[in-house]
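A.,

Following up on our hallway conversation. C-alpha cells first:
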C-alpha cells in the first residue's frame, strides 16, 4: 500500500514491511509508504495498532520478541533490512534519527546537556566539521537560549518542553535525512506543544529532512503533516494527503477516530469507537476491523481487503465507494447545567511549597456539588500540586481548605478516615499507578480493606459491581495489569477510586496518555458516573478542547496563581486574561474540517 502519485525522489521508502513475533504471528504486515525530503508523514491509530513498531523499524530495530521478516526499508536508496548490527549502528543517528516520547527517560540524568550533545556528534565524526558550532546552531534552531547556560545544565534542571527540544536538537545535529518522532508532545501543555511542533516543522523544512511523526492526537497531526497513514491491527488502512483524509475520511475506522476528537468550540458528547482492537499477533481473519465496523458484511470477514484508490487516497475497505462521504459528525451538544450556589469544596488563600520554593500563591477555588471543575494551565503552573494538596498527598501548605463545611488538615495522616474515604484520586499514568503483582480484584478491593471491614463475599460483590460500572466484566477481576490495555487500566483505576463511593473524585490528567477513541470512552464514562452517582469532580488537564466536553466550571492557573475562573463557556468564548487567550489560541484544532464531503449519515453519530 504505497502513497498515491509519490515522486521518485524520496528520503525514505517502506515497501511491504512485515514484522513477526518470535512465535510466527505477524504484528505488522503489508505496510508501505514514501516520504520526500522536507515532508512529514503522520502515523496515527489507537494504542496497539503498530505505529511505534513501524517507527522503530525505520531504524532497523525491532523490540524484544519481534523480528523484521519481510519487505524493504530504503533510506536514501539504501535498504536497511538485512544489514548487520555494526552497519545499523553507523546508520542510526547519521542517516536516521529518533526522537522519543519521554525525553526525561531518554536523556542521561547524570550527564550535562552539552556532554550528551557532544557524544551524539562524536559517534558520527563526519557529520560536522565544527561540532561546537553545529551544537550552537541546532540549539538556536530549536529555540533554546544558549545564554541561559543550557549546555551546563542537567536534564532535571529543564522543563518538559525544554527537554523535548533538546532531544529534537540532538536528532537534527548529525543532519540525518530521516527523523522518526514517536509521540514527542504527549505529556506537554498546549503552549509548549505548539513550540515543539513549530520546531519540528521548521527544522524539517530548513534541512530538507523527511519525518515520520507517530501520534494519537489527530488535531496535532492535521496541522503538521502533509500526508497521513491510519494504522489498525498492524496494517495501513487509509493513506493519502492530510486534507483529503481528514476532511472526508473513507475508511469507517478513520471516521470513528475523527468522531472522537473533542472540539474547544462547543460542549458535546464524545463518541468512541465501540469494541477493542485485536492484540498484536491476534489479528482476526478477513478485514481486521470487521468485528467493530458498522458496515461489516460476510465478505469482509472472508478475506483481507486489498487497497483500492478512492478520491486521491488508498483505502483497505471492500465498501470504500459506499462509505466515502459518510463523514463523522460531533455528538449531541451538552446543555449547560443549572448554576449551583452550594459549596462542597472551598479553598482560600492556599500557598504551597516544595522546601523553600513556592509553587502555589494565594489560590482560591470553589467547587459546587455534583459539578465538574477543570483546572488548566501550562506545565509547572501548579495544577497537580493543587490536586495533591486537596487529597492530602502534599502537606507543605498554608491557608484554608474546607470540605463539606469541615476544615481539611494538611496531609492525609492528619485527616479522619471518613474524609479520606470521601475524597478519592485517579492518577495520571495507569501503567505505574496499579500494582503489577496484584490481580485487578485485589487492586480494586484494597480501598475497601482500608476503609471498611467487610466480609469476603460482600467485598467481592462490590468489586464486581465497580468493574461493571466502568464497563469491565467480572472476567477482568482475575487478570493482572499487564494483561490490559491502557484504557482498560485507567478504567480499573477509576473503579478502585469509586468502590468506596466517594463524594469528590480528583482526576489528574487521566486521559493524557490515551488515544482519542479511548479518551472519548473514558470521558463519557466519567460523565455517566457523575450523573448516576451524583459525583463531584475536579478535573486536572492541559487539554482545553476536552474541558469543553466534560467540565462546567474552569480555573486557570499561571505560575501558581489563579488568573481567571468561571463557567467554561464564558472562559472559552470570552477569556479575559491574556494568558488564557494565549492558551486557547494554542489549542490544536483539526486543520481540515470534517464534513467537507457529501455529508452522508454517519454510523458513529448518536
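Then the amino acids I'd put at each of the 606 positions:
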Amino acid at each position: 500500500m504505497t502513497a498515491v502519485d509519490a515522486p521518485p525522489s524520496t528520503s525514505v521508502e517502506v515497501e511491504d514491511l512485515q514484522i513477526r513475533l518470535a512465535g510466527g504471528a505477524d504484528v505488522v504486515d503489508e505496510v508501505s509508504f514514501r516520504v520526500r525530503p522536507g515532508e512529514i508523514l503522520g502515523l496515527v491509530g489507537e494504542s496497539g495498532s503498530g505505529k511505534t513498531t513501524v517507527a522503530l523499524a525505520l531504524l532497523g530495530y525491532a523490540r524484544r520478541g519481534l523480528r523484521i521478516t519481510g519487505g524493504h526499508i530504503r533510506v536514501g536508496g539504501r535498504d536497511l533490512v538485512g544489514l548487520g548490527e555494526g552497519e545499523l549502528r553507523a546508520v542510526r543517528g547519521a542517516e536516521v534519527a529518533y526522537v522519543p516520547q519521554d525525553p526525561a527517560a531518554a536523556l542521561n540524568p547524570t550527564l550535562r546537556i552539552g556532554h550528551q550533545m557532544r557524544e551524539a556528534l562524536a559517534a558520527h565524526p563526519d557529520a560536522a566539521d565544527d561540532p561546537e558550532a553545529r551544537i550552537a546552531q541546532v540549539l538556536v534552531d530549536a529555540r533554546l537560549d544558549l545564554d541561559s547556560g543550557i549546555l551546563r545544565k542537567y536534564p532535571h534542571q529543564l522543563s518538559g518542553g525544554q527537554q523535548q527540544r533538546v532531544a529534537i536538537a540532538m536528532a537534527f545535529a548529525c543532519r540525518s535525512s530521516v527523523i522518526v518522532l514517536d509521540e514527542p508532545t504527549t505529556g506537554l501543555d498546549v503552549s509548549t506543544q505548539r513550540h515543539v511542533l513549530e520546531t519540528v516543522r521548521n527544522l524539517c523544512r530548513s534541512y530538507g529532512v523527511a519525518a515520520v511523526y507517530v501520534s494519537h492526537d489527530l488535531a496535532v497531526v492535521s496541522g503538521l503533516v502533509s500526508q497521513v497513514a491510519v494504522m489498525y491491527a498492524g496494517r495501513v488502512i487509509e493513506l493519502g494527503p492530510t486534507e483529503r483524509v481528514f476532511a472526508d475520511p473513507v475508511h469507517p475506522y478513520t471516521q470513528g477516530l475523527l468522531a472522537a476528537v473533542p472540539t474547544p468550540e462547543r460542549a458535546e458528547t464524545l463518541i468512541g469507537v465501540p469494541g477493542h482492537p485485536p492484540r498484536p499477533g491476534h489479528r482476526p481473519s478477513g478485514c481486521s476491523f470487521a468485528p467493530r465496523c458498522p458496515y461489516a458484511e460476510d465478505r469482509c470477514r472472508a478475506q483481507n481487503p486489498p487497497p483500492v484508490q478512492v478520491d486521491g487516497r488508498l483505502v483497505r475497505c471492500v465498501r470504500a465507494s459506499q462509505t466515502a462521504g459518510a463523514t463523522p459528525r460531533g455528538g449531541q451538544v451538552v446543555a449547560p447545567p443549572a448554576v449551583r450556589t452550594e459549596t462542597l469544596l472551598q479553598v482560600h488563600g492556599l500557598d504551597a511549597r516544595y522546601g523553600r520554593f513556592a509553587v502555589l500563591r494565594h489560590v482560591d477555588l470553589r467547587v459546587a456539588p455534583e459539578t465538574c471543575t477543570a483546572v488548566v494551565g501550562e506545565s509547572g503552573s501548579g495544577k497537580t500540586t493543587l490536586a495533591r494538596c486537596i487529597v492530602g498527598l502534599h502537606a507543605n501548605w498554608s491557608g484554608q481548605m474546607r470540605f463539606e463545611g469541615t476544615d481539611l488538615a494538611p496531609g492525609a495522616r492528619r485527616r479522619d478516615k471518613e474524609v479520606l474515604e470521601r475524597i478519592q484520586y485517579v492518577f495520571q499514568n495507569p501503567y505505574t499507578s496499579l500494582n503489577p503483582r496484584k490481580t485487578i480484584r485485589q487492586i480494586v478491593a484494597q480501598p475497601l480493606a482500608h476503609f471498611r471491614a467487610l466480609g469476603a463475599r460482600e467485598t467481592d460483590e462490590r468489586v464486581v459491581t465497580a468493574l461493571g460500572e466502568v464497563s469491565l466484566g467480572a472476567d477482568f477481576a482475575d487478570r493482572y495489569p499487564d494483561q490490559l490495555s491502557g484504557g482498560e487500566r485507567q478504567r480499573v483505576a477509576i473503579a478502585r477510586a469509586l468502590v468506596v463511593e466517594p463524594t469528590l473524585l480528583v482526576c489528574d490528567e487521566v486521559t493524557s496518555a490515551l488515544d482519542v477513541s479511548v479518551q472519548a470512552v473514558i470521558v463519557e464514562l466519567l460523565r455517566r458516573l457523575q450523573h448516576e452517582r451524583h459525583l463531584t469532580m475536579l478535573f486536572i488537564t492541559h487539554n482545553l478542547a476536552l474541558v469543553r466536553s466534560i467540565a462546567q466550571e474552569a480555573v486557570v492557573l499561571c505560575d501558581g496563581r489563579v488568573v481567571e475562573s468561571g463557567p467554561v463557556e464564558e472562559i472559552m468564548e470570552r477569556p479575559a486574561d491574556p494568558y488564557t487567550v494565549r492558551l486557547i489560541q494554542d489549542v490544536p484544532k483539526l486543520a481540515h474540517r470534517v464534513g467537507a464531503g457529501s455529508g452522508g449519515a454517519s454510523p458513529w453519530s448518536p
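Residues 109-172 form one domain. Curious whether your intuition agrees with the design.

B.
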